Amino acid sequence: MREFFRRLFGGQPIAMPREAASGASVEPVDRADTVERIEVLTWGGFETPASTLEAILEEYLMPESIGPDDRGWIEAEVARAFARKRDEEATWPAQTDVDRLAVAFEALDAAGIIALHRAGYTRSDGISDAAEVYHARREQGRESRGFVFYHGQDVEAVLVDRGLYLAFGAYDDRDETAAGIAAEIVAAVEAQGLRTTWEGDVGKRILVHPIRWLNRSPSDA
After folding, report:
1. CA 188, CA 105: separation in Å to the nearest integer?
2. What is the pTM of this model?
3. Largest Cα span, the chain
C-alpha cells in the first residue's frame, strides 16, 4: 500500500516491462489487492469515480497488460465502491470531523498560516507544496508566517483510526515562532470540537485524535 501511495501522490513513474508496453502480454489482475486500493482512494474522499478509475488503470496497474475482463471488472468495482460510499454519506451528520478540520484550516489560512489538505504523500512533499503556495502568494503581495498540512501517508493512517498528524513550521526558521504557530493550530482545531495532542516539541507533529474520517467525495460533474 505504501508503494501505491508513493506512486499516486508524486512518486517516480512506473517502469513497464518491455512486453507489456508493446501490448504483447496480458497479465491477470490481483483483484484482492486492487479492491484494497480502490477502497483507500474511495474512502479517502479526495478522488472522484473518474479520477479513481484513472489512478487504478494508469498509475497502479499497467494499462497495456490489463485484459478486457479485468478492465470491465475494475470499472464495475470502482462504481460499486462509490455507490456504497454515497449511500453511507447520506447517513452522515451535516458537519463531520473532516468538515470541522476544514473550518479550522480556513481560519489558519486567513491568519497567514498556509493550510493544506493531503499535500503530497510524504512530509517532504508537503513542505514543497507549501513552499510553492508561499512563493505564489508572496508574488501577489501576501505574506505567510508558516504552514500546516497532512499528507497522503497521514490519510492512509487515519483511515485505520490511527489519528491524523499535522506537520507545521515557520518561515523565519525560529523555534519560538514555530511553537507559536503550533499553539495557533491547536487552538483553531480544538475550537472546532476536535481534540489534539502536542508535547510542545517543534520537532514533533500535532496529533488530532480521535477523528472520524468522513470525507465527502467530490462529484465527477
Report:
1. 8
2. 0.86
3. 60
Residue 63: asked if its preceding bond is cis (omega within 30°), the reply is no
Residues in the chain: 221
* Residue range 82-121, pLDDT digits in tens: 999 999 999 999 999 999 999 999 999 999 999 999 999 9
In this structure, is the dihedral angle defined by the CA atoms of residues 77, 80, 86 and 87, taken in order, positive or negative?
negative
Q: Contact 208/193 with Cβ under 8 angstroms?
A: no
CB within 8 Å of 117: residues ≥ 6 apart? 46, 102, 105, 149, 150
Of 51, 65, 169, the C-alpha closest to 116 is: 169
* Cβ atoms of 34 and 61 closer than 8 Å: yes
Distance between CA 25 and CA 66 in Å, rounded?
A: 9
